[in-house]
Amino acid sequence: MATRKQFDDYMMPVYNPANFIPSKAKGSIVWDDKKKKYIDFASGIAVTSLGHCYPPLVKVLNEQSKKIWHLSNAMTNAPALDLAKKLCKLTFAEKVFFANSGAEAMEAAVKTARKYANTHYGKHKNEIVAFADAFHGRTMMTIALNGSERMTAGFGPMPSGIKHHPYNEIKGLEKVITKKTAAVVLELVQGEAGIIKAKKNFLAKVKKLCKEKNVLIILDEVQSGVGRTGTLFAYEQFNIKPDIVTTAKGLGNGFPIGAILTKDHIAESMQVGAHGTTFGGNPLACSVALEVINSMSKKTVLKNVLRKEKLFIKKLKEINKNLDCFERINTAGLWIGCKLKITETINLDTVLQQCYKNGLMVLKANNNTIRIAPSLIIEDKLIKDGLNIMEKSIAQLQRPRV
Question: Domains in the chain, ordered, with CATH?
Answer without folding.
Answer: 4-54+300-398 (3.90.1150.10), 68-296 (3.40.640.10)
